[in-house]
Specification:
The protein is mainly alpha-helical. It has five helices and two strands.
Length: 202
Amino acid sequence: MSNSDSFPKPNSTAPGPGRASAAPRVNAPVRPQQRPAGAGAPGQRPAVPGQRPVSGPRPSSPGQRPAQQGTPGLVKPAPKAKVRRARLLVSKVDPWSVLKMAFLLSVALGIVTVVAAIVLWTVLDLTGIFDQVDSLLGTLSGSEGGGFELKKVASLGQVASFATIIAVVNVVLLTALSMLSAVLYNISATLVGGIGVTLTDD
């Protein structure tokens, strides 16, 4: 046996001092740096033993109202608006408008006159005033003179007719006088300026 057989042969694949290894290198995973116990969030000082940790702002619960910044001041009542006044002059009156208004008012007054006359006659008849007047006039004139009946002289038809005539006359007179008054007012207003009227918004 030779001396070369007693010694093991060097592995040809083993890296030599001047030969680079053929096996690829595997990069080991980089583990994150662990923080020491007691370290807080980034930008926060670490807790010192024996010192109470400083707690941050607590999150508000959903049912809790945030603290008010400041109490609102008392609301001052609005100042009372000053009453405005305007002084105007009635310098001219339209005669046609006065004529229409006077006619309508006089017709209404005539209707009221006729109705009032009829109502008054009915009330006198129901209360027996006509009979009492007839007896009184018969007593004054004597029984030999014959009886006097007031209803024959002033019956309901005669009273209604007389009231209607008075109402028609009043319509004509009041309408004519109102229009004449408007014309006279316009003439006098050109001389003295008319009637002053003060209007307010109160």
